[in-house]
Amino acid sequence: MRPHRALLLLLAVLGASCASPPPVPGADDGSADPALVRGREIWGKACASCHGSDGSGGRGPSLVSVEIRYPVLADQVKVVTDGQGSMPGFSGRYDPEELEAVVRYTREVL
Residue 84 carries which DSSP code? Predict the structure, then answer.
């Protein structure tokens, strides 16, 4: 690959990882569920760098169809809380309500 093509590819990958997470419906007019708004904030800070800003994957797997893998919300919250495989747990970083908020964001918005 030519050096300039490699640089363009790198810039495209970096640009995609810097994109904002999808907005929560109703956030602009103030009618959004506050838990989903908080979940989006947490997603952008703690999750998007591995799973992609839109949840389509990166270093971590895609979460776009997460309901298929975790049909029960509590099971997905447990994975985010305790970690699984190479994914760290976030129980020491966020409280249970915040962890449920980010899981709801992945299920209801992404």
Answer: B
pLDDT in tens, the chain (110 residues): 454 454 334 434 444 446 899 999 998 899 999 999 999 999 999 999 999 999 999 999 999 887 788 999 999 999 999 999 999 999 999 999 999 999 999 999 99
Distant-in-sequence, close-in-space partners of 106: CB < 8 Å, separation ≥ 6: 39, 43, 47, 55, 63, 66, 76
Q: What is the DSSP annotation of 5-18?
A: HHHHHHHHHHHHHT
Domains of the chain listed by start with CATH number? 20-108 (1.10.760.10)
Phi, then psi, of 84 in degrees rounded to 5: -160, 135
Nearest to 97 by CA among 39, 47, 50, 33: 39
Separation between Cα atoms, residue 25 and residue 13, nearest integer Å: 27
